Amino acid sequence: MILYHTSTVEIRQPDLSYSRPRLDFGKGFYLTPFRLQAERYGERFTRRGETAILNIFQLEENRIDCTYKIFTAYNGEWLDFVTACRKGLPHETYDIIEGGIADDQVFDTIDLYFSGVYTREQALNQLQYKNPNHQVCITSQHILDKYLHFQSSKRL
What we know:
Elements (H helix, E strand, L loop, with lengths): L1 E6 L21 E3 L3 H13 L5 E7 L8 E3 L5 H12 L8 E5 L3 H11 L5 H8 L6 E5 L2 H7 E8 L1
Parallel strand pairs: 4-5
Antiparallel strand pairs: 1-3, 2-6, 3-7, 5-6
Helix pairs in contact: 3-4
């Protein structure tokens, strides 16, 4: 599977020690299978006058020693997982997690849920109308080192 990660630098070997905690799926290296999504993310850097680098990776398909979770929709399970990760609460752990991104529109709904303005049901009702972007989060350095291979990079 080809995956993309946009940064201000070329990343030949991802290192989780640089990853931030309390993101959608916790601390990890985030990628997407959608090149256009990664390129659009790079606009954040170019608007600030920084260089945007699209890093292209190959993730091996046969990963027999890895735990994997896929969220297929913005649903209750996804909401509970993202809420726990973003609040730094205990949650189930996986080596690789795939699913929708809490982008600005989605995060507005989650923020209202966090603050108690929306109930869980109201938040889920709002989320059902959102088109998910897609992210792949690798939370294990071992999995990054063994199965994710740098292919090339391109300045955007």
